[in-house]
């Protein structure tokens, strides 16, 4: 393999090489890191983050950004959890509600994310507000709405707990015998969502239009693409994924507060950028996004596993993000 081919190989597979090097480096420090139990824990803890990052990828590929995703996660978590408390829990959010069908609060949480996403898309597409500003405003508004809801009587800002077992089982249950080889339901859900998003990205008109808009919005408009309508659909799809992520996060942790999802938007954007989604738009893949999520999952779990200070973890994550963006910009300038 000559130098040019080697350089091309390293460029195309840099994200996977970094992931492998991280795993190998941690395993050298503590070989027990290379166990099925650890892999299962990492996948379990990062399944919801993968779904949220896939939602953020929709927006980033169009050349936009979404700062509201974390607060949408919190809203969906609180809404679903508030309706799914066990009837014998002493502090019910809705004392008179009774036990309702499991699907109803789940759908409510997803729809809440969808509605906020559609609003984001409408503001960006119809009012021509830059995505950064539009979603910044939505982030603040959604947090305010969620906090007002969370502060309603009789809850009055108390953490929502005592969730029904049929709901928490979605986040903590698994297929197979109890042990390292069991497959958590939430991991299966994340895989299914990833496959669906891959199909949308690669096999649908919406996906093709999304890449076209991110690549060159003027050219997309001239070619007959209804940019405004597509942007509304894209932001709506992202919002629905955030909503699903919030519901699953409540199921996984067994509770919710209005601060759920705080800073998740930055983790999602960082995972996308590290996973090869271009900040200039028009470029991004589902495997890359998932690899980006895994990189930060390995950093968070693995460095804690070997006793590295959380502050050093933040420094390492920051350096990786800056390096990824710098690399992305260099590729973009080289093409121009």
- Let me know the number of strands: 2
Question: What average pLDDT do the residues reach?
Answer: 91
* Quaternary structure state of the chains depicted: single chain
Helix content: over 70%
Output the radius of gyration: 21 Å
Which segments are poorly predicted (pLDDT under 50) over 5 or more consecutive residues?
none
Main sheet properties: 2 strands, antiparallel
Q: Quickly give the structural class.
A: mainly alpha
Query: What overall form do the CA principal axes indicate?
Result: globular
- How much of the sequence lies in strands comes to under 5%
* Strand order across the largest sheet: 1-2
Q: What is the number of helices?
A: 14
**Separation of the first and last Cα atoms:** 27 Å
State the order of secondary-structure elements, H for helix, E for strand: HHHHHHHEEHHHHHHH
Can you tell me about this structure?
71% of the residues lie in helices and 1% in strands. The mean pLDDT is 91.
Topology:
Elements (H helix, E strand, L loop, with lengths): L2 H10 L1 H16 L6 H26 L7 H14 L20 H24 L4 H20 L14 H8 L1 E2 L7 E2 H19 L1 H11 L1 H6 L4 H27 L10 H11 L11 H20 L4 H26 L1
Antiparallel strand pairs: 1-2
Helix pairs in contact: 2-13, 3-8, 3-11, 3-12, 3-13, 4-5, 4-6, 4-11, 4-12, 5-6, 5-11, 7-11, 8-9, 9-11, 12-13, 12-14, 13-14
């Amino acid at each position: 393999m000559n130098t040019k081919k080697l350089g091309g190989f390293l460029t195309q597979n840099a994200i996977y090489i970094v992931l492998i090097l991280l795993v190998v480096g941690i395993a050298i420090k503590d070989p027990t890191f290379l166990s099925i139990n650890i892999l299962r824990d990492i996948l379990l803890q990062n399944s919801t983050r993968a779904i949220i990052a896939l939602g953020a990828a929709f927006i980033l590929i169009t050349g936009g950004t979404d700062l509201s995703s974390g607060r949408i996660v919190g809203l969906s978590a609180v809404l679903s959890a508030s309706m799914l408390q066990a009837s014998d829990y002493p502090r019910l959010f809705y004392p008179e509600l009774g036990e309702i069908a499991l699907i109803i609060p789940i759908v409510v949480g997803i729809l809440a994310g969808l509605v906020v996403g559609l609003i984001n898309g409408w503001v960006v597409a119809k009012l021509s507000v830059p995505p950064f500003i539009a979603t910044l405003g939505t982030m603040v508004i959604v947090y305010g709405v969620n906090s007002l809801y969370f502060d309603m009587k009789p809850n009055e800002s108390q953490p929502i707990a005592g969730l029904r077992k049929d709901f928490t089982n979605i986040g903590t249950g698994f297929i197979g015998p109890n042990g390292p080889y069991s497959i958590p339901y939430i991991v299966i859900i994340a895989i299914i969502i990833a496959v669906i998003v891959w199909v949308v990205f690669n096999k649908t008109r919406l996906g093709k239009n999304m890449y076209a808009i991110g690549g060159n919005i003027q050219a997309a408009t001239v070619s007959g693409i209804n940019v405004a309508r597509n942007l509304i659909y894209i932001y709506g799809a992202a919002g629905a994924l955030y909503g699903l992520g919030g519901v699953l996060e409540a199921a996984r942790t067994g509770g919710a507060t209005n601060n759920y999802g705080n800073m998740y938007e930055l983790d999602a954007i960082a995972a996308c950028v590290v996973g090869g989604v271009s900040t200039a738009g028009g470029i991004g893949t589902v495997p890359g996004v998932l690899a980006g999520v895994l990189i930060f999952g390995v950093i968070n779990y693995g460095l804690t596993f070997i006793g590295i200070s959380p502050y050093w973890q933040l420094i390492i994550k920051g350096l990786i993000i800056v390096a990824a963006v710098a690399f992305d910009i260099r590729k973009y300038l080289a093409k121009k």
